[in-house]
Amino acid sequence: MSRVLGWVLLGVPLLAALAGPLLTGPVHAASVPLLPPGGAHPLGTDVLGRDVLALALHGGGSVLALAGGALALSYLAGVPLALAAVGQPYRWLDRWLTRGLDLVLALPGLLVLMVLAATGTRTAGALVVAVALLQLPAVVRIVRGAALDAGRRGAVEAMALQGESWWRIHFDYIGRGVLAPVAVDAGGRLSLVLYLVASANFLGLGLDPATADWAVLVERNQEALFLQPCAVLVPAGLLVALCTGINLTVDHHLVTGRGPS
């Protein structure tokens, strides 16, 4: 049951984000603001007079792009960094790297985003880099732990005795050994990254306030919650469904030890 529910909750917002823009035309203010649901506008209009249904179908792409970019950047930086730290001969470098990243790990993510917003740095690129840096310490820790376990295998010693290069041992053999833990971690971490990206958009960080983005729509229409609930509840519900669906699907994968069938 949880498997089916997870895929339904995950599939609906993904389908809306990927196929939605193909089903509707450009989103623009074409009606009276905060109209209730009716014939011309099945879900009503928002504070700018835009159709809520069209906004919901257009607003997922930016969320997925920002979250996916931040997640990919954290692994592109974290995996090689962890493998290099484990493979180098100086233990003190590994120790100091871990302690330095622990300082970043201790920083509350929302506090960092609030400080970034207060400095006036509100671009989407800055948001992606900030979220990726917040995830970097945890990624390095997970990859480092998996690499230390893979590095104790007899095959590593055998490859070293055969004269294999340091790069081949640590970035090829051990690197392939950490792929499974990284894949499992990425599934669960995506929901955390989505939460941070959505929270940043609530703060006005990353995207223009007029953007058709689910998180921006919630922030922009929150004061009209009781006048036109659909303008807030529909994009908020899609965000909640996406995060919940990811968590249920990953949990099922971890419990059963196999991919969904």
Question: Would you kindly provide a brief summary of this structure?
Answer:
The chain is mostly helical. The protein folds into 2 domains: about 1-60 and about 210-260, no CATH class; about 60-210, MetI-like (MetI-like fold, Orthogonal Bundle). It is built from 11 helices and no strands.
Task: Describe what you observe in this structure.
It is found in: Cell membrane. One of its GO terms (cellular component) is plasma membrane. Keywords: Cell membrane, Membrane, Transmembrane, Transmembrane helix, Transport. It is a multi-pass membrane protein. The chain is an all-alpha fold and 261 residues long. It has eleven helices and no strands. Helix 3 packs parallel to helix 6, helix 3 crosses helix 9 and helix 6 crosses helix 8. It is elongated, with a radius of gyration of 22 Å. The protein starts with a helix and ends in a 5-residue tail after the last helix.
